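Dear colleague,

As promised, here are the two records you asked about, laid out in our usual form so they can be pasted straight into your sheet.

NAME FIELD: protein one
SEQUENCE, THEN STRUCTURE:
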Amino acid sequence: MQPINFDEILDKIVEKNPQYHLEAYLFLREGLDFAQKKIGKSNKHEIRHITGKELLAGLREYGISAYGPMTVTVLEEWGVTRCEDFGEMVFQMVEHGLLSKTERDSREDFKDGYLFDDAFRKPFLPSGKAKLVESRSTQPKTS
């Protein structure tokens, strides 16, 4: 049995699913490692399976640390505009043997995770502007 070549398989995934850039999958993998290490610190350095919500939190923190307020722009350039995109990418990687899942894991775990502007841009706004953005996002939309 041949060992899995991560890069070759990612190339095949991107070729089959070009809506997400190769860099998005690499970001996802790095964010997963980041989340596992963070959770491992609180669990006596045990690496364990993490949930979709835990992964989203890790991706948020990793994105902010790597790209700051440009995270949304970078992710959009790579075809990722919402949490569901991360879920789709995770399950593409699962289907190709790059990641594993449990019976309880599903794409639904990534639904309604967070709005990208709230998660990645809002932390960098001055407090007055953050409140203005928050009030706009909670107001009903008018036609």
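NAME FIELD: protein two
SEQUENCE, THEN STRUCTURE:
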Amino acid sequence: MPTITYIEHDGTAHTVEVAEGFSVMEGAINNTVPGIDADCGGACACATCHVYVDPAWQHLTGTQSEAEASMISFANAVEPNSRLSCQIKVTAELDGLVVRMPAGQH
């Protein structure tokens, strides 16, 4: 199973296994990783699963859809590597992925 490392805004890291086909958000929720609330349950409708994708991994996580780009515009502290973790599907190629949570999410 691929491993994903979630880094809280204070630097606390959580490395967990996430089954392929699940989203990065589901991996956080299923492993009680703090900082990803997912209020909408992964429907790309709330931006409470906002993460910063480590630049080394951006090319493997795909690009934002129009719906994701629209929703993420409501998030705080948006950066060029901002994504909604509910929109990133875990694949074998994402084994080792690192994402960080913004300071406002904890």
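A couple of things worth noting about protein two: The chain has a mean pLDDT of 94. The CA atoms of residues 38 and 48 lie 5 Å apart.

Best,
R.
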